[in-house]
Amino acid sequence: MRISIRMIGLATTLFWVFLIAFSITAVYSVKDLHFDFGDPQMSMTADNKVVFSLPISIVNRGFYNIGFFNITTEISDEEGLVLARGLTFTPVIKRNNKVIINHNVTIDVYDLLQNHQDYLFSDGELRMCASASMRLAELIPVQASTNLSMPWGAPLYNFLLGELNYTAFNITHFRALVPVSFENHAFFDVVGNIQLRIFNSTSVLLGDGETVIEVSQGALYNGFVELYVPIAEMTESGYFEASFLTPLFDYGPLVIPFG
Amino acid sequence: MADTQSDSKTRLRKFIFKALKATIKGGLFYAVYFILWMFIAPISEIIPGFQQTVEAFVITYVILIIIGELTSGTIFQHFFNAAKALFVICYLILSLRGGILGITFENLSLIVDLRLFLMIALLLGLLGFAKSVLQAINYLSEKAEYPQI
Questions:
Q1: Looking at the partner chain, which of A8, A140, A146 has a beta carbon nearest the beta carbon of B107?
Q2: How far is A102 from chain B (nearest CA, A)?
Q3: CATH of region A157-258
Q4: Rounded to an integer, what distance in angstroms lies between the CA atom of residue A103 and that of residue A96?
Q5: What φ, ψ does residue B70 adopt, rounded to 5°?
Q6: Is some CB atom of chain B closer than 8 A to the CB atom of A28?
Q7: Can you tell me the mean pLDDT for B48-68?
Q8: Can you give the residue ranges of every domain in chain A?
């Protein structure tokens, strides 16, 4: 019996030593794990989706490999509806190795603005949930996560139509100039058309016109839309219908009364 | 009279030897902890109260080692060895909170899944406990086989 007890004691001691040594070296290895985040890049895909790309450099100088390295980013609106999700997975980061990965998040701005038309005209906030998980020494799962709020800049912030300016064009028609102004607070340039249709108080279409816009990020737009309106059908009040056509979003008609 | 004197001298010598052995064992254990602490010290900056928790464990374990050594040669030694194994098991379960540790620092939350480590450590603790029980049985059976005359 003594021999078997000694054997149990010896085996237990050996396993304890192995377990403690492994745990301590695994913890110590975390100190030698370095993450560097590069400058985020933004690009457009062929189908007009916006891709955010974050280069991450991981240097593993620890004693063990890192397994199942995974970064997940979820962007959601204020109600918690997920708008975009990015996932980057690296199976193994070997010890004494440097790995550079690109974490991409693709946002379909068209879908976003079709479903959340408030974001066209009002600035707001988007929620971002980022989490990184890995297996230290390919055995111990570790997960870090954080919640951030991301400012959303409206592409047509403070969209306004000014006072109508009439000038006689011929006996039957006026030439009307409608001042259009807005600020592009979005992270992308707004390039496209604004179409404007004018209706009188009895909802009869009087005329339409359009203008080409090209407004870079953060810029203010001030322009005019030219319309030809029949004098006979013109009333003091009525409304405009504004439509926006850009590669990133289509919106309209936005009804704006006048008079 | 002379027999009683030599008996008490032998007992004293035995006790001093046991005390010396207990001190050396306790000292060695503390030295190992001291060396290993240098490697895991950075964790105490991340986890508040980590050092105190580890120190409480080391102090209790050293006390049990010393008591176990002082009572060696008696059945109490095996009781204390079993208590040591049970203490390790209970301590690990309580301090590792079931194996999933979560820390929140400002807006960042960190989760470490130590269930595999905990499972192995618990199995080793149970093995240590079984060893103490076997030692106690062995001690009692040997006493029964060779009664002191």
A1: A146
A2: 22
A3: 2.60.40.10
A4: 22
A5: -65, -30
A6: yes
A7: 87
A8: 1-31, 32-152, 157-258
